[in-house]
Amino acid sequence: MPRIYLDYNATTPIDPLVLEEVTSALKNYQGNPSSVYEEGRAARILIEDSREFVRTFLDAGNSGEIIFTGSGSESVNLAIIGSVFAYMRNNKNAIPHIITSRVEHPAVLNTFKFLELHGAETSYIGVNEFGGILMDDLLAAIKESTVLISVMGANNETGTIFPLKQILEEVKKVKEDILFHSDLVQIIGKSYFSLKDIPLDLCSFSGHKFYALKGCGALYVKKGANIDPVIHGGHQERGLRAGTENIAGIVSIAKGLSIFKNNIDEELKRINTLGGAFLDKLFYGIEGIKLNGHPVNRLKNTINVSFDGVKAETLLFNLDLYGVSASAGSACNAGAVSLSHVLKAHGYDVKRIESAIRFSIGRFTTEEDIDYAVSAIKKGVLKLRANPS
Ligand SMILES: *Cc1c(COP(=O)(O)O)cnc(C)c1O
User: Fold this and answer.
1) pLDDT exceeding 70 applies to what percent of the chain?
2) What are the extents of the domains in the chain?
3) How many CB atoms lie within 10 A of CB 333?
């Protein structure tokens, strides 16, 4: 039985070229990058070269700096908590206000919840049935004390892409000094993105979503964006993230982005075509299904569909037996019976949400994988509809 992995939005397999680069770095660079002798200097150079590469990849020019962190989640925490803490330090009795969307990853939403416990004021902006952010509500929520707005680039559950450039411009027109952060974990290393085109103040990304290692991430911080560190200790990462650097992770991030950059047009064309074919075959082959999220403005690698009369958890269990891996809602919620907060925000009914499965493809997905998966899905759906529990 084959294993068909269709959960690239949860994590990607390591690219063999990344593995090679990481193995060599682990073997050859074992000094502490903060040490001043030869072994330390060599490790330092490797890290700074990686930083430089990532900055160039993002088209950052000299606009800001890359801070390496321990995950996408950590980057998000640093951006949001860091902004709020810096504001509180500089405005002793003021209550900071922060805004985000209802469809963010838990890394953002639970950081907001944490800051609420510490006295911050929060606003959560809804989306329409296609997952598009309610722009008027967002702009209306801005006030004098608004420190930060966090809106993701693309949603991990539905693949819906937000018009970040437009959102950023409109927000800055209302209040220039708001820090605009974007969770770009599903964009950077997977899709086109340039800071020249979309000059965000802060953006987060994660190695294991673009074929690099798990447990490493990065935050871009624009010059002048005032954030305090969250992890304290040594002066690593420009004083914003203490702790001896994860050289393997950092090298993997640079290599992962470099592999993507070298083949960006071809890879996106291939994945988009494959994703389109997957969607067509599903809709052609199985009756009673609905696409969740935006029909057009979405990452074509992400297909979130609801199957009438089927419980997602039961279908996933059957698919696993057939060798197909996918997920219901976001991976972080898998196993839990709670309904997807993302699909709830779309206003879908409970049945549609309970029957929703996310398939996400990537670099190593083939046409044969898709064909096998579609027939397995069809088999599973027909079986469950014939024997409703
Ligand atoms: C995976 C993911 C994260 C978390 O990244 P980690 O490196 O796993 O902490 C944050 N946001 C989005 C949109 C994601 O898909």
Assistant:
1) 97
2) 4-12+264-386, 16-258
3) 17
